Amino acid sequence: MNLLVPEVTPKARHSDTVIDFSRRFVPEQFTPLYHTPVYSRLNADEQLRYNQLHGLYFNEQIMFFERALARNVLGRLLLSPIRKSLKPGLIQFMEEESRHSAMFLRLNRQCAPQLYAHAEFYFIRPSPIAGKLLHVISRQPRRFPLFLWLMLPLEMDLE
Ligand SMILES: [Fe+2]
Fold first, then answer.
1. Centroid of ligand 1 to alpha carbon of 154 (angstroms)
2. What is the CA(156)–ligand 1 centre distance, in A?
3. 7-14 mean pLDDT
4. pLDDT tens-digit readout, 44-78
5. What is the mean pLDDT of the chain?
6. pLDDT at residue 84 is higher than 80
């Protein structure tokens, strides 16, 4: 599989969404390579494709944290002794996270069907130990409240 070439021709149609591969997926300033001298050595097509691949990776990052954290952090808080008035908000938060993850996966599958045909992640593949560690730690939101705080800035107006 050649990642340097989009899997479909420009402006190919996938379901009801048109993916325009002639455009960047994210602002250049959001990509690490843009801030290095080597970026200027890439030609325009390479810069564009790098940007698009980084956009897919960016979506994976958000999806990873939503999947890894929402159910564990929010689910555990729901099971803990909290004010009854907080529960509907936590449930809504979990439901929104689930919808967001599904949206990012759908978008990545539309942009790169071969990369995501049989897997939800292509670029992010945590080791089993790292995955287990995150799972164990995130299920203790009162001991490690940083995960709850981490989730909040990820929640921009997606809907
Ligand atoms: Fe979200």
1. 6
2. 8
3. 54
4. 999 999 999 999 999 999 999 888 888 888 889 89
5. 87
6. yes
Q: What is the dihedral of CA 142, 147, 149, 152, to 10 degrees?
A: -130
- CA 40 to ligand 1 centroid distance, Å: 34
How far is ligand 1, taken at its centre, from the CA of residue 41, in Å? 36
Q: Bridge-partner residues for 14, per DSSP? A: 17
Judge whether residue 12 has pLDDT over 60. no
Q: Which residues contact 151 (CB under 8 A, 6 or more apart)?
A: 65, 66, 69, 70, 73, 97
User: Could you give the CA distance from residue 127 to residue 129 in angstroms, rounded to a whole number?
Assistant: 5
The gap from C-alpha 13 to its chain's centroid, in whole angstroms, comes to 22
The whole-model pTM stands at: 0.81
Cα 141 to Cα 137: distance, rounded to the nearest angstrom: 8
- What is the distance in A from the centroid of ligand 1 to the CA of 66? 6
Query: Which amino acid type is present at position 117?
Result: A
Nearest to 146 by CA among 154, 135, 138: 138
Instruction: Give distance in angstroms: CA of 131 to centre of ligand 1.
Output: 20
Give residue 123 CA to ligand 1 midpoint distance, Å.
19
C-alpha 87 to ligand 1 mean position (Å): 18
